[in-house]
Amino acid sequence: MMILNIEKIGSSALKKLAQLVTTEEIQTEAMQKLISAMISTMRYHEGVGIAAPQVSVNKQIICVGGYEKNKRYPEQPPVPLIILINPQYEPYENNFVDDAEGCLSIPGKRGTVARFQKIKYSGYDQYGSFIDAVAEDFFARIIQHEIDHLNGILFIEKAKDIVDI
Ligand code: ZN
């Protein structure tokens, strides 16, 4: 199991626009190892999601969920593990919800962020298959948070009521 170093706020790795992954690249052993290391790193830190720029890889890859109960967000429901390469989303309906958010790159902080309650998302999974599905509530929130990372955006730039935890 490989645990990668997580970039913290202030790092230039978190400010870049992540690059698209090619279809050929998805099938490579290096990509499979990276995805596996991202999942291990997310789980090691009890995260609910992780984006490649957080482990200094400037590519459009996110891992989301994969837990029944999460220590950092014990009040939130289970979220299935999904890997999304070159992910995109759009609102399913124009309904925003406020909820508390944190980030492995910003230890000790939480803030309230308005996110779409329900989204349509798409991307390629770790095998190169196209995924097109709907997510809502915390699941949708994590996807939006992780895709923000691919655009160099941290939750703290959107949050109100930031508190130390
Ligand atoms: Zn984050």
What does this structure look like?
The protein is α+β, with helices and mostly antiparallel strands and 165 residues long. The protein has one domain: Alpha-Beta Complex (Peptide Deformylase), CATH 3.90.45. The chain is 21% helix and 30% strand. The protein contains 3 helices and 8 strands. It has helices spanning 23-26, 29-44, 137-150, and strands spanning 49-51, 61-64, 82-91, 96-101, 109-116, 118-124, 130-136, 160-164. The chain has a 5-stranded antiparallel beta sheet, with helices on both faces. The chain has a 3-stranded antiparallel beta sheet with strand order 4-5-8. A hairpin with a 5-residue loop joins β6 and β7 (130-136). The longest helix has 16 residues, at 29-44. It is globular, with a radius of gyration of 15 Å. The two termini are 29 Å apart. The model has no long low-confidence stretch (mean pLDDT 97). Residues 103-105, 145, 149 line the site of zinc ion.
SSE order and pairing:
Elements: H1 23-26, H2 29-44, E1 49-51, E2 61-64, E3 82-91, E4 96-101, E5 109-116, E6 118-124, E7 130-136, H3 137-150, E8 160-164
Antiparallel strand pairs: 1-2, 2-3, 3-6, 4-5, 5-8, 6-7
The structure holds zinc ion (ZN).
Shape designation: globular
Question: Mean of residue pLDDT?
Answer: 97
**Class based on secondary structure composition and strand pairing:** alpha+beta
Low-confidence stretches: none
Quote the CATH topology.
Peptide Deformylase
Strand count: 8
CATH architecture classification name: Alpha-Beta Complex
Total individual domains: 1
Q: What is the topology, as strand order, of the major beta sheet?
A: 1-2-3-6-7
First CA to last CA: what distance?
29 Å
Instruction: Spell out the helices and strands N to C.
Output: HHEEEEEEEHE
CATH class: Alpha Beta
